[in-house]
Please model this.
Amino acid sequence: MNSDVDTYELLKNNVVEIRFHGRGGQGAVTAATLLVAAALIEGKWGQAIPSFGAERRGAHVQAYARVAPRPLPLHSQVTRPHIVVVLDPGLLSAERDRVLLGLRENGVIVANLPSPMNINGAVLYWVDATQISRKLGLLVAGWPVVNTAMLGALAGASKIVSLNAVVEAIRQYWSARKKVAELNAEAARQAYNMIKKAVSKEVRLAAHA
Amino acid sequence: MASMAKPGHVGGEAEKTAVIPLRGNEAVAYAAKLARVQVVAAYPITPQTIIVEKIDELISKGEMDAEMIYVESEHSALSAAYGAAIGGVRAFTATSSHGLAYMYEVLWWTAASRMPLVMALVTRAIGPPWNIHVEHADLMSTRDTGWLIAMAENNQEALDLTLLMFRITEDPRVYLPGIVGLDGFILSHTVEPVEVPSQELVDELLPARRQPYVIEPGKPIAMGNIMPDEIFEQHRMDMHVSQRASIEAIREAGKAYLELTGRDYTSLVECYKCSDADYLVVGVGSWMGDAKIAADMLREKNVKTGVLRLRWIRPFPWDELRKAAEGASVVVVMDRSISFGHAGPLYLEVASSLTQDIPVVGVVAGVGGVDISYEDIARITKHAIKTVEDTGTKRIPVLWYHKGSFYPMPPGPLRQREPPITANPLL
Model:
């Protein structure tokens, strides 16, 4: 580590910290890993951290990621994310406290939802990733696989990585399975284009007053 | 840390290096492959398992030409790797926690047989109660066995140190086995960009295997005989001499690696902003990265802090430590394990290496996977400085940092002069 670098400045101003929420088996850890690959393709640095516990299929699981223009010597856990990505449509209702825990003021939520909902103090982006995956036939054991769609949605909402980098990362990850790679890339592409910012209730109340 | 190269195969230094996202465990597996390890014997244990799985995958895909010996325990895993090494091939194993405890006897056999062999140790707490997360008790328990011990800060180092360890352990001045430590989950399961050197480059780093003797069929030699006590003692003295001689071998290997990769392992320590530091944080492993951020954070408030990360624990870097501590008014040693009834192992090693006039504070924290952030380390450093200034104490063996509070656990004077800030939750 170069001694003239101020790592604290870099951390405060240039790092995006992300927390993924999903259910065990939905691929939150893979989404975080693909995000690092996409960041790397763009010449950035990234880090993907699985949550350190006993993960089970169907349980609420978390994964973390960091993206920065330069490498950072950081290995502690992400406790104050700038962005949370919610893979499972039920989690924002059923586990809202855990999903929003530590989210920075005016932080961003990128959620897989069939319709928008109101969340105070955060900016919500939503896309129906389940629908995208179902239409593409992106199913594993009958479950729609939404992680790559949500990665596209994250890129669309935050622009921390480009769609091209996401698609390339997906192609590299499934380099031995071209058809799977293309389906996942298509899911990412569609979600990137369909992601919408939810209009918060406060705006409507302001209009009434 | 080297500047980030472009992903994939990069130009110029051309075709020599690929940067790919890897978990720490995968980085170690690639290092074993690139070192042309011929025999791997290991028993899976969390969080080491991915190393064995990845090597198995590389072998089954035909990318790695090695024999995987499946065993029923860690005692057998190291015994098999040791047997292979003695038979003349480069051998490798990996374990964690209870697995290491189970192979402990064989650690002594391997080192005292003077047999080069490399092991990755993915650090993890030893139960009970059951805990799969990071702690350095397993790593620290190997200090007296004669193995060389290096400790990685990040995934790049996990790969690089594994490669370097093969060269250093097989140096005729050394002929001892070596452990490369990496923190469980924090590195083992975390994905980071890693520069993977080409086979060609690694072949330049690693000469053909050298070892003091080979056991071959038809050429019997005697092993493990009862020796006169004086000969035994000479043998132990010789191991100690070789440990000290390994310092030169480490520096030379580091120099060769620097020329090949641009990454600098010529020193046994990494000094981050220590040259003008009034306060020095000393430690090993992944959290020393966060300590660097803490140092920069403290420097914003004119608390001139530096970080001395020990990359090598055996041999112990006396000279580097003494030089870095010159001019420091407080040295804070961070331990991720405790020698019950005394202090953190690293504190004991650092305090015994420095002159009595330099205050040394031992802080135990992050035991059993408790997350320690750069903010925690900044708070720890400030508290340690204040405790020294308030009490005038030169040696404070244990301030245990737990959930944001400090629990002084010294034998005697400090407790009388400065009562604990918060009551001990255990009492």
